[in-house]
Amino acid sequence: MTSRKEVRDLGRSNRQTADYFPHYVGEKSRTKFILEKNWGNDGYAFWFKLLELLCAADGQYYDCWDKMGWEYLLAVTGVTAETAEAILNTLASMGKVDKELWESCRVIWVQSLLENLRQLYSKRTAAPTKPSVDNFPGRRVESPAQEPAAATEAEGTPPAVPEPAPEEHDKPKAPRRKAGSLSAEQAERFDRFYAAYPKKVDRATAERAWAKINPEPDDAATDRIIAAVEAAKKYDSRFRERQFTPNPASWLNAKGYMNDYTGGEQRGNDDGYAGFTPSGGFGSFG
Length: 286
What we know:
The chain is mainly alpha-helical. It has 2 domains: 8-133, no CATH class; 184-275, no CATH class. The protein has helices at 4-13, 30-56, 67-77, 81-94, 99-105, 111-116, 118-121, 184-196, 203-211, 219-235, 248-253, and strands spanning 62-63, 107-108. It has a two-stranded antiparallel ribbon. The chain is elongated.
């Protein structure tokens, strides 16, 4: 007969979660340096909270595909969606997060974490293995926290696609642009903005943020956005030190170009960037 202790030990030996992970003190870490340089304490905390989350996850990977999974990651790490996206893209480009799984499936896998837990898993029946992209069929990443497709009226019946009007058949179709990419005209305007912005990090994320501005900035609007950058350099206390300066993507997503410094205070402008009026007043910023 199997004893209770043997049953308990057997259950433990099959677990693919961890209650701890090594945190080496004093070791020069390129990852920590880059995260702290770009995002300060938020970057440092995000990385170690992510490792804690992975340790607690069965199989030691985390799936951000559905909205609830993504929202939970943001709640645990305490950062905005834009910051989380930028940090994870940076970690993927550094090879710390598996690039293929993240970019194709929005699944987070950190191989170095498993290697640091090798001693723990040597006492168990099996260690987790990296999931394959094939384990997540039908995924196509366009934006974070994908919403499930709406159900059709009849189960299993694809939605009807209306036939185009006869006169439309001969109309040339404009080439489809990848979501978040910029036209040549908008790329030139973004280049002007990026050249003026004092902190040059995560350009690709910043380009996606520029592409989301609605309506698309024309030359005049681009001039006003650049004027807003110059005003922020003078009157926004965050721009005095690089470590506190928002990343360009974060500034664009937060509509920093709508801030109005008239009267010596920073405040939102409901009229959009078209109504930006820089002022010589010096504000008090908390």
